[in-house]
Amino acid sequence: MPGIASDPRDGSPVSSALVPFSPDARGPAAYPLHHGLKPPISRLAISWGRGNSLRVSFFRRAPADDSDGDEVGGKVLEVRLSSGDGDISDPQSRRIAYGSVSPFALLQSRRNSVASLSKMSSPYHVEWWEYVMEYSKDINSLLGDPKSLPTPVIEDPKGVMQDYNGLLSSTQATVSSKLVDFQKELVTLQIVEDNAKYWEVLSSTLAVGWLDVVVKMLRLHGSYQLDQIGNRETENGLVEAVAVLISKMPRMRPELGSGRLGECYRAKPDFIKAWEKWRAQITKLACSSYWVYCDHHQTREGLGNMLQIMLGNTNSLCTSTCHWIELYIAHFLYIRPLTVPSTEMHAVKTNDHYACIDKSPFGIITDNTEIAPIYLTSCMKQGVGLLEILLSKQPVQHRQILLKIVEICRLNELHSVSSNIMKIAGVYHWKHGRRGSGVYWLQQARDEVRLNRIAQQLFDSVGQSLSDESFKQWEGLIELLGSESKAAGGLEFLHRYRDFKKFLKQVNDGKSTCAAQQAVESLISLMKNPCTPQRFWLPLLYDSLKLLNWQECPLLNVSQTNLLLNKLQELSMARLRPDFIEAELAPQASGSVRLALATNLGRAILEEQ
Amino acid sequence: MAIPGTALREPPQVHRLPQSKYIDSVRWLPQQSAFDRHAVLALSDPSSDSSPSLEILSLSSQTLSLTTQCIWNPPSRVSSLRTSQTPTLKPVIAAATFSGSLHLLFTNSIDASLESEVSVPEEGLHVGPVSCVDVLDGGAECVSVGEDGRVNLVSVSGSRLNLRRIFDSHGLVSYTAVKWASPAEFVTGGYGFSLQWWDQRKPGGAVSQFKGDWAEGTTSGIVHSIDIHPSRKHTCLAGGSLGTVFAWDLRWQQKPIILSGVGRGETAAHSACESEVWEVQYDRYTKSTNTGNVSSSRILPAMICSEDGILAVVEQDEEPIELLAEPCAINSFDIDRENPSDVICSLEWESIAILTRP
Asked: Which GO CC terms are listed, alphabetically (chain B) (predicted)?
């Protein structure tokens, strides 16, 4: 890498590549892409597609002239990442997805109970590993016949980690990605040990067992510099002691690759003995009095934390790792060095189903919303956000699908999402002429604003009066609006209007003065109510002519008549405004109402005297 | 929860049969022979919108496995599926679709092979999807309802279908469920837990309306399924949102009998489930536990399936009896009319379960 070929401080050549990525380690597969676009391609974007595929988008530069104007501006290709034998059909992959839910739910509930029982800040606990194993076994059996795997030991955590990096999307940090980031930053750092990130990366790298990298990084510590060593002797001694301890970590394996650190033991008893000794040395160092003489605060803290990692302190391991797989490895390196994390690990790792465990299982969730919430809600950081986006994107046309989504929202307490979805459904149905469904969903979403707005449209179609034939049609909608306690916006007017019409019908059917009294009360309450749209005032009064001209006695008293006269006056004032909507009534309607009111007023005055 | 009475009952035998497609609906096909049993599945492919299918499968009584007998492709996904018999005891399948068409498939009564198909094309019946269809028992007459607010009658005469529109609310009221009560009457259900009783002899609209606002406006829901027992035609059983199962007795017009779900108040413990009840059917197999008091006002035991994965038998004032509790939704079920001990149901995760009750 240019620019960092040598360490600027001591002049000795130090390999800048902390993470030795070797391009030929796993024999990368080449996928030829036939995009068929004319060059130049200005931009290339890669994202996860469905399942085990990548989506590669090619963008061309906008054409400078018209010569290739008919050329498309870009293309998106799906690249299926499979070795050929791992190809599974859609139904099969859905079956795996369905089957994976129960073990996962069990794992989650165990995790929660472990966490609540131990009252620890972290749920990672000894039993927890048993559960993870069990889960892995379940998933393994779900995936079918496990292939016999060669030498099932994590020989090379580095290789494994890089695989994981490949599996995970780039949005979540891993130890490896942290390390790569830090490597870039390293060039600009003058005093590396003052940087908190340096210590963070060191402990993370140590946690996943990349010993050679750790030692290499430790030796970048400023106390090694010739001009410093005199006054930082103790500090340097401590750094070196830790570096030596790390490079002497006992490993139970026949041999290590060249450049790899650690001491190999073939036999278990030898290994145990060495392990105990190594741990004793760490403990001794941790309790040493030299720490008091170390003036550099960050060094003291950082090295202490590294010792805790080597001693298998769960909290230190948890904070130093990013992903649970990394934690899993750390656990086997420092807590249970004798356990061989073999087939189960491999089974989980080798299939892309792994991606479902903690990360967003995009392949599955885009197919099945029923499964998505189970995975996404267990993913602390982005899960709920992703779920919200996913749910909001679902189609609302089908009642059953809509209800299933609303139910998922209810279970996950995503009330605002569900209310938004119901609003969308309400507007959708309304726009497609299903006014009843539209009103229902808007009511469910308690969307007063839209209910008020559609009320105006609804009143247009109610027209000047509810005719008898259309009454049956309106009846159901008005029932749906329900009692006044329900959100109905301006629509509650319809309820009163219907009642008024009912009474009026009884009057017209030749019912008694009693029915006429009820109709008048209903009329007055409608005219008093601010919800009653102004355009309905005249039709209401015109419909009530019979009541106003009641033969036997005046039905309205003086104040009631005055109220109606005032309304009529208000109406003639309003008529001057440009936005006034004239009711479609006979031209003499206003006159006849005024006359009837005046007559009634006269009779009422006489009556009251 | 200890359920009295269930301790004595043996649990049903359950056979799960994974499918490779999403099951929109499942029904038994009425049989003539006790040896040949068939089920009808409406299937769709979740990976692609194309090629929904209707499959008739034969059930092997020994292995309880399903073998596809014949496949028929509807123009779009099936939104409602019913089976019945013609007056000549020929099995008939009524399938309505999301694109608004209705299809009647007549099958051979011996081997269930497809003999003929008559249909009303899209746009002829409804604007948008058909919500629900029901076939009159013993007579080839169908009633269909939709969210567009139309109520249609479709009758078979020879090889033709006659269409008659009973009512059109022009979208002011949407219907989501329908069930025949008698050759002249049927019941529809819709939003706001509403039910409407219709009588062909009294045109112009529903003869009776049930307002589903017993929960005092706090909660409301949708009726998804209706059943009416042939011996109690005055009572209509309905299942819908919020785990609600209620009965509407025409003789007590506005007072529902709640079997499960909201509005139960102090007896809420009897709720079999708390999410959408997708289907209800009277369960002829379960004998009422309260045999001493089988008055005509008592609601007979009924089976329900729900979004929260419950298949259960509910009975008035009794604890529900759970037959299945699945991790995924149970979207539809059917009780075999010849062998009411047998139930077939479809699960959200692309499988069929067949229950045999002891």
From this structure: nuclear pore outer ring
